[in-house]
Write a structure and sequence with these properties.
Length: 301
C-alpha cells in the first residue's frame, strides 16, 4: 500500500529535519522544514544550508555536499575563495574554541568536483516555452540564469563586455581568484543550456519584452567603487577610486593588480602604479619603494 505524507513525511522529518510535499498540478516540491535555520545559514547571503553540507563532508559524502551547496549557490569554487564568510562570524562552535572553517570546506568540495567528472552538472532540459533574458553575466546574472534553467526556462544572457564574469574578472586579481576557477564555474552554468551573447549592451531592457522575452532579470553589476569619504575626494583631479584606477589605468592587466578590498586595494593599487612607473614590469620590492608612490605605514598590512 502506498504510504501517505503523514507517514513518509513524518519519518523524513525525524531523520533529516526536512520533508518534501508534492502538490498535484505544481511542478516543484514543497519543502517543509520546521527547524529554524541555523545562524550560519541565516548569515549567508546565498542562504547556503551550511549545517547540511558540513555534515555531509564529515560523513565523506562530498558529491551530495556539493549538491547541497549548488542548490542555492552555483559558484562554490569562487565563493570558496573570495566570500567574506559572514557565516563563520555566527558559528556557534566559536563559543567552544573557533568557528568551523565553512568557506574553506566549500572550496574543498568545489576542488574535489574539478577532479571528479561524475560530479559535473548534467545539462538542463527546457520544460517551458517562455524565454527569459538576463542582462549582465556577473555573479548575480549567472546565478539567476542557473536557477531559471533549473526551473525549465529558456535563458539568454546579454553581456556588454567581451567575456562573462563581471567584477569577478574585472575587480578581483587572479592571484586571489584564479581565472580557470571562474571559467570552469561559468562554463558549468552555461553547460546547463544557457545562451550567452557577448559584446551586447542592453540600453533598453523593456525592448527585450517587446522582442518576446517573458521576463527580464536586470543585473548590471556593482559599477561603483566605495568612496573613502574624504574631503575633496571627488573634486581633485588625479584622485581616483580603486575601480576607476583599475579599469582606466591598467587596461593591459584585466583583473590584475588593483582590485577589491580596502587595505588590499591600496597595496595592489600601489603595485599597479609601480607597474605604470616601470612599464617593463618586474619591479622589485626595493624598486617599488623608489618608484615615487608612497603608502602611509598605517595602511601596510
Ligand atoms: S562562505 Fe559565504 S557563501 Fe559559503 S556559507 Fe559562508 S557566507 Fe555563504
Amino acid at each position: 500500500m502506498k504510504k501517505g505524507f503523514a507517514e513518509t513525511g513524518l519519518r523524513d522529518l525525524l531523520n533529516t529535519g526536512e520533508a518534501r510535499l508534492k502538490i498535484a498540478g505544481v511542478d516543484e516540491e514543497l519543502t517543509i522544514n520546521p527547524v529554524p535555520d541555523s545562524p550560519c545559514r541565516v548569515a549567508c547571503p546565498a542562504g547556503v544550508n551550511v549545517k547540511a553540507y558540513v555534515g555531509l563532508i564529515a560523513a565523506g559524502n562530498f558529491e551530495r555536499a556539493l549538491a547541497v551547496v549548488r542548490a542555492t549557490n552555483p559558484l562554490p569554487g569562487i565563493c570558496g575563495r573570495i566570500c567574506t564568510h559572514p557565516c563563520e562570524a555566527e558559528c556557534r562552535r566559536a563559543e567552544v574554541d573557533q568557528p568551523v572553517a565553512i568557506r574553506a570546506l566549500k572550496r574543498f568540495i568545489a576542488d574535489y568536483a574539478r577532479a571528479a567528472p561524475q560530479a559535473k552538472l548534467p545539462p538542463g532540459t527546457p520544460r517551458r516555452d517562455e524565454r527569459v533574458a538576463v542582462v549582465g553575466a556577473g555573479p548575480a546574472g549567472l546565478t539567476a540564469a542557473n536557477d531559471l534553467v533549473r526551473f525549465g526556462y529558456r535563458v539568454t544572457i546579454f553581456e556588454a563586455q567581451d567575456k562573462p564574469g563581471g567584477m569577478l574578472v574585472w575587480g578581483i586579481p587572479p592571484f586571489r581568484l584564479p581565472r580557470d576557477i571562474i571559467e570552469e564555474e561559468i562554463n558549468s552554468i552555461l553547460g546547463l543550456g544557457t545562451e550567452l551573447c557577448l559584446n551586447t549592451r542592453v540600453s533598453d531592457p523593456a525592448q527585450l519584452l517587446k522582442d518576446g522575452y517573458r521576463a527580464v532579470f536586470y543585473a548590471p553589476g556593482c559599477q561603483k567603487a566605495i568612496k573613502l569619504g574624504l574631503p575633496l575626494e571627488d573634486e581633485l583631479s588625479g584622485v581616483l577610486d580603486s575601480l576607476t584606477f583599475r579599469v582606466d589605468c591598467l587596461p593591459a592587466h584585466p583583473g590584475g593588480d588593483a582590485g577589491s578590498g580596502r587595505g588590499g586595494c591600496c597595496r595592489r593599487g600601489r603595485r599597479g602604479a609601480d607597474r605604470l612607473s616601470h612599464p617593463a614590469g618586474g619591479a622589485s620590492s626595493a624598486g617599488r619603494q623608489d618608484s615615487g608612490t608612497a603608502l602611509h605605514p598605517q595602511y601596510i598590512g
